[in-house]
Amino acid sequence: MLNHQSHKRVLLKISGEALAGQNPSQNQGLDQAMLHKVAIDVRCVVERGIEVCLVVGGGNIYRGVSGSKEHGIDRATSDHMGMLATVINALALQNAIEHVNVPCRMMSAIPMQAIGEVYIRRRAIHHMEKGRVVIFSAGSGNPFFTTDTAAALRALEMGCDLLLKGTKVEGVYDKDPVKYLDAVHYETLSYSDLLSQKLEVMDATAVALIREHNLPLAVFSIYEENSFINVLDGTTKYTLITE
């Protein structure tokens, strides 16, 4: 299990759908209560002296892959539209974090100087060393790559010692626990297990990237109270993925 005392810098990946709240009929838009909840969770970790950065998805506004398939939009164009959706989410999350008195900077892989800083690796590291939370938006800035892959990439670039993914359920199961009551929860898994069993936690590119650099991945429910710090303390249910 994890121990928060062993972590200096971590990256939290949150899906856009999570920011829409828990209402199953509402998987679009932004839920203010959920934004505040995530901001409080982040503050709890920062108060422990752990440096925090985040990557947020954009599925609650626009998803590039489905937009390309359903509406016949060119895939590269559709992915760029999805990147812009992540910027909207990042701005909302930045505002929520600042409202709980935690300094925060939003950086974009696509230059948008009027609303946020352009992503520069050394500047992002400097912000975190100064106690600021950094939110990385616009994915990796490239089409055909998911925000999961962007999260893995940024975690490695920042020298994070742990990548966390907040999902709708308490870790990884052998099948959907919402549909199947007999679904089995995994406490630990290897990267190879994720790929061979086709467990849809992160896309294969992201898994291959963190496996190559042996970066641990913790998967947990973002909806649980104080879930972020509880995972680092090992006091909640989650799945730890390592080699």
Secondary-structure topology with pairs:
Elements: E1 9-14, H1 32-46, E2 51-56, H2 64-71, H3 75-99, E3 104-108, E4 117-118, H4 121-129, E5 133-137, H5 147-157, E6 162-167, E7 172-173, E8 185-186, E9 188-190, H6 191-196, H7 204-212, E10 217-221, H8 227-233, E11 239-242
Parallel strand pairs: 1-2, 1-6, 2-5, 3-4, 3-5, 6-10, 9-11
Antiparallel strand pairs: 7-8, 10-11
Helix pairs in contact: 1-3, 2-3, 5-7
Q: Report strand %.
A: 15-25%
Q: Helical element count? A: 8
Mean pLDDT: 92
Superfamily at the CATH H level? Answer: Acetylglutamate kinase-like
Measure the end-to-end span.
14 Å
Order of strands across the widest beta sheet? 4-3-5-2-1-6-10-11-9
Strand element count:
11
Share in helix? 25-40%
Question: Spans of 5+ residues with little confidence (pLDDT < 50)?
Answer: none
Label the structural class.
alpha/beta
The whole-angstrom Rg is: 17 Å
SSE series: EHEHHEEHEHEEEEHHEHE
Major sheet description: 9 strands, mixed
- What is the class in the CATH system? Alpha Beta
CATH architecture: 3-Layer(aba) Sandwich
